[in-house]
Amino acid sequence: MIKKTVIILLVGVLLFAQGIVYAAESLSLDSLIGEAKQNNPDILAAKKRWEASAARVPLSKSLEDPSIGFTFERIPRGTLKLNKTMPDDRMLTFSQFLPFFGKLSLKGKIAVVESQMFAAEHKAKELDIINQVKNAYYDLFMNDKEKELAQESLGLLEGVARVAEANYALGTISQEEVYKIHLEVARLNNALQNLEQEQSSKQTRLNTLLNRDPESSLGIPQLSEEASFEADIHSLYQSTVMNQPELLIFSYAIERNKHAKALAKRSFFPGLMASIVQRGITSGTLGPWDLMLSFSIPLWFWTKQKYEVKEAIANLGEAEAAYNAMQNRAFAEVKDLAVKAKIAKNKISLYKKNLIPMLENSIAASTAAFSSGKGDFMMLLDSQRMLVETKMNYYQALVEYNMNLADLERQVGGNLSEVKNEK
Asked: Which among 298, 360, 363 has a CA at the least distance from the CA of 10?
């Protein structure tokens, strides 16, 4: 009768441990990403730098400020009596410097390209923060699953401890075996406390990315167990070239240096200073007017303008080489992440379709045998531990898969669901 009671208790503990369900508010990753885009200070700062660069575009295309001057000629020697000068000797001068044709246009194009570079930097910062939010979310998910499995194991071991104490009272197991079980219970309790502390740290990390109060409470992260991404590597390469902010910045640098080269070549041509002088400004009637034109002459072109062009050519060559190097590194990283995602996907399939069902079937068979008075208690306990470890490995593979996809999206500069449509 006592043995039957012990068996029923153990079977109940096993079934309960496998059926623990947590009811808590779920935490949406999409909503967190949207909140980060709106509130993250780094993203907002990058956006303001972009807006400031856009404001510089019209400035760069504008003429220099004109100058207005007053001239009084033939002032009697030894006096400051301006009213003693002749009306025609009182003049108003308006001067404006006019750069050679095309210079302002090129300066405007350079400013536009530089603004595009700041826009790409803003996009890069946004992608970085989104990637950090995703990784923090996946870390929190893994922490939650570790806690869940640890609590499941703890519930099992506490039940086993009660069964072991009953068996020890009957003299069927030694005190050493009971001691080992209690040591395992203490180890799991300590692990759960550590996981609670880690959860607090991970929540703070996520809250700071969202610009929330560091101690704000968060719900339970949810992660789809569907691993269906198929990487078309050429489409990933194409998206990287078209969308990765860092590559775009390098391509804009090439464009900027092309305009700078054209501008440097125009430095061989003179600029024009035009001045209009109106005489008799205080006489009540306007007198004659003068027109003065002067030109800036690039007289020392062999030591100045010539080397401006050389510098511009060298900068253009450097920008083109840097772009190629950056593209090669980006392609290598994209390939590496795509392979890692595929490996993690294979692990998920192995655990989900083979190992976990096999262990669950083994535990069900062992439980049925044990409940009928047959079977080995330690074998049942080892199978349960192996199932918990396998589930842990499964969730780790799931997190690795999603983290690799998040890093891959950061590299290609866009959503992977859109990349697949570019085949």
From this structure: 363
For 340-396, what is each residue's pLDDT tens digit?
Answer: 999 999 999 999 999 989 888 887 777 666 555 565 666 766 777 788 889 999 999
CATH 1.10.1040.10, applies to 2-63+99-267+304-422: no
First to last CA, the chain: 69
What is the CB neighbour count within 10 angstroms for residue 234? 10
Among 228, 224, 246, smallest CA distance to 333 is for 246
What are the residue boundaries of the structural domains of the chain, listed by start?
2-63+99-267+304-422, 66-98+269-299
Helix%, strand%, coil% for the chain, nearest 5: 70, 10, 20
- Distance from C-alpha of 308 to C-alpha of 266, rounded to nearest angstrom: 10
Contact between residue 121 and residue 242 where contact means Cβ atoms under 8 Å apart: no
pTM of the model: 0.82
User: What's the CA gap between 197 and 360, in Å, rounded?
Assistant: 31
